[in-house]
Amino acid sequence: MECDLIFYSSRKTGYCESALVAALGSEYKLTRVLSAFDPEMLGDKVNESLSECNLIFIIGGISRDDSFSTPDVLSKAFSKNDPLPESKKLELDGAAAGYRLSCLDQRIVLLPDDPEQITRLVPAALK
Questions:
Q1: Number of folded domains in the chain?
Q2: Contact between residue 114 and residue 12 where contact means Cβ atoms under 8 Å apart
Q3: Residue 28's CATH number
Q4: Above 70 in pLDDT, residue 97?
Q5: Taking a C-beta distance cutoff of 8 angstroms, is the pair 32, 49 a contact?
Q6: Burial class (CB in 10 A: 0-12, 13-18, 19+), 66
Q7: Alpha-carbon distance 110 to 92, whole Å?
Q8: Average pLDDT of span 3-19
Q9: Over 90: is that where the pLDDT of 113 sits?
């Protein structure tokens, strides 16, 4: 299955990309790596990716504590969708570390910009 990766407010991008590719295994192919620097650009990149593939990973922006955090930005963007995406927390050690949004046959997975956490979260995100 083809998938895209979008970096948003992310650090350690090379390490995070390598961790994601390793965690995905051979069943998944990362086709594009994109980056967004503000909420509007993130929305544009998500729309672009959703038109091309059914699985998107967004790395970064989860731990921000302002209105530009990835969950806040996507929550506002999808609040008017019909149907609303189903949301699932991806937990590590009892705390939310990522999220999986599913709607129809498309998924968006929000991951932290920590390679070790990516390695641990991706298997649960793909279930």
A1: 1
A2: yes
A3: 3.40.980.10
A4: yes
A5: yes
A6: exposed
A7: 14
A8: 94
A9: yes
Pairing of strands 95-103, 86-92: antiparallel
* SS3 of the chain: helix, strand, coil, percent, to 5: 35, 35, 30
How far is 34 from 49, CA to CA, in rounded Å?
9
Tokens 């999986």, residue located: 100
Domain that residue 24 falls in:
2-125
Per-residue burial over 29-56, b = 16 or more CB atoms within 10 Å of its CB, e = otherwise: eeeeebbbeebeebeebbeebeeebebb
Q: Locate tokens 């709607």: which residue?
A: 103
Report the candidate in 71, 121, 118 with the shortest Cα–Cα distance to residue 91: 121
Decide: 21 and 30 in contact? Cβ < 8 Å.
yes
Residue 38 tokens read as 């503000």
pLDDT band at 70, cuts 50/70/90?
confident
Alpha helices (runs of H) in 1-127, residue ranges in sequence order: 13-24, 39-50, 70-78, 115-125
- pLDDT of 81 strictly over 90: no
